[in-house]
């Protein structure tokens, strides 16, 4: 008997995190999961949307696949930070999911949370966002994993692909260095909880689709093996432009946890 086709993951927009002395370039990964329904059709799931500045690129990548955002059936928001949710308006036909703790939190973000603007709730309240929790299934072979700590209700998508279990992590794992060191690079809720979530996802995954990096796997020797080549272009400057400099990547976590009264 032929084995049923498994879900596939196609990265629409790769994640990127470039720190500058003028602020961060926070490009989150946007991933398309396609799940065969056994009848010749597909359920299309997108995990995160990117911020509004990436809207043109997002629609271009969908069009290159013969799709529009209206063809997406399910939208999973791993969390409600501005760089992951602003293009929600394009997904007008999708059923939208997020964790209830995340949706509760945006009603009253803590003062140190610069990733959750005060208008976040006003924006998301325009949509019928349904709750998901650990173990819920978005489609056959695509489950929800709770991975809190970076934010109050961060979740990931666990996808049973033909090559093993792939986890689309949002910012529960921002990049490969976080996975190697099992230490979250940016915490707005609870550092200990965030680091436990990193370990949980690394241990369960055969491949990781992170919040701000290219897809990768962690080998048995704790080495990083990227699944795609890195590609990004910059315009408006050149490498030899006076004042432009490049430094090595280092994990220097920014910890701005919610005060205890917010975590009750």
UniProtKB/TrEMBL annotation:
Organism: Microlunatus sagamiharensis
Family, similarity comment: Belongs to the metallo-beta-lactamase superfamily.
Residues covered by the Metallo-beta-lactamase domain: 29-212
GO molecular function: hydrolase activity; metal ion binding
Record-given protein name: Glyoxylase, beta-lactamase superfamily II
Pfam families: Lactamase_B
Keywords: Hydrolase, Metal-binding, Zinc
SUPFAM superfamilies assigned to the protein according to its UniProt record, in alphabetical order: Metallo-hydrolase/oxidoreductase (SSF56281)
Domain of life: Bacteria
Cofactor(s) this protein cannot do without: Zn(2+)
